[in-house]
Structure formats: C-alpha cells, structure tokens
Amino acid sequence: MKFTEEHEWLRVEDDLVVVGITEHASEQLGDVVFVELPEVGTQVTKDDEVVVIESVKAASDILAPIDGEIVEVNEVLVDAPGKVNDDATGDGWFFKIKPSDLGQMDEYMDETAYQDYIS
C-alpha cells in the first residue's frame, strides 16, 4: 500500500489501483455525511478532482493520484457515506482506476514514511 501527502491510500489489485482515504484523514474530517463519486469510464489525470466528500466539519476533494480510467466506484458510499469513517482502509474505498502508468505509484510513501509524515 502507498500513501499520498493528501492522505489517500493506494492499493494495487491485479492491474487496478484501489483508492481511499486514510484513517488519519477520516478522523480529521469527522463524520462523513455525503460522497459524490466519479462516473465509471471517466479518464482522469493526476491531481484532477475526482471525489467530493462532505463531513460535519468540512467539504474536501479527493484528487486522482495517478493518470488512468475510473473502472469501478464504491456505490455503497452513496447511501452509507459513514463507511468511510467505519472502515477507511477497507470497505470505505472510493474508486478503482486502471492506471496509464503504474510507475507513478513509485513517488508515493510506504506506510512507515506516511506514519512519520503524520506524526
């Protein structure tokens, strides 16, 4: 698993990358009350705004961590946005992306580096 400075996690599954936010980000946001997901088939470029999250404290955007095509979204979050708080690194994932260049993952932190970053 890799981590971004924007508190996203990225997990490679076969030829796809699953994207969500970290427990740390979930705690900072507070209770998530709304999630707007991208359309499947959307082509994204790194740093494009892809997901909108609203919590009791703030609204935030999730940026595309890599270039690629959105191939699946976590529809469960539309009706149950609190999954993000309950299981941020599991069932609370946002989307799966088919990367144009998996090498873009190399620039992100591993778990040890991320823990250092947030401490």
Automatic annotation (TrEMBL):
Q: What does this protein do?
A: The glycine cleavage system catalyzes the degradation of glycine. The H protein shuttles the methylamine group of glycine from the P protein to the T protein.
In the UniProt record, does the keyword Membrane occur? no
Which Pfam families does this UniProt record tie to the protein? GCV_H (PF01597)
Swiss-Prot/TrEMBL keywords? Lipoyl
The entry's protein name is Glycine cleavage system H protein
| UniProt cross-references to PANTHER family, sorted A to Z | GLYCINE CLEAVAGE SYSTEM H PROTEIN, GLYCINE CLEAVAGE SYSTEM H PROTEIN-RELATED
Which positions fall inside the Lipoyl-binding domain? 16-98
Q: Which cofactor does it need?
A: (R)-lipoate
A cellular-component GO term for this protein: glycine cleavage complex
UniProt similarity note: Belongs to the GcvH family.
Q: Does the keyword Cell membrane apply?
A: no
Spell out the InterPro entries in the cross-references: 2-oxoA_DH_lipoyl-BS, Biotin_lipoyl, GCV_H, GCV_H/Fam206, GCV_H_sub, Single_hybrid_motif
Q: Which Gene3D superfamilies match?
A: 2.40.50.100
Query: Which GO annotations describe the biological process of this protein?
Result: glycine decarboxylation via glycine cleavage system; protein lipoylation
**Quaternary assembly:** The glycine cleavage system is composed of four proteins: P, T, L and H.
| Source species of the chain | Roseovarius lutimaris
| PROSITE patterns hit by this protein | BIOTINYL_LIPOYL, LIPOYL
Q: How is the cofactor bound?
A: Binds 1 lipoyl cofactor covalently.
Taxonomically, the superkingdom here is Bacteria
Sites where N6-lipoyllysine occurs are at K57
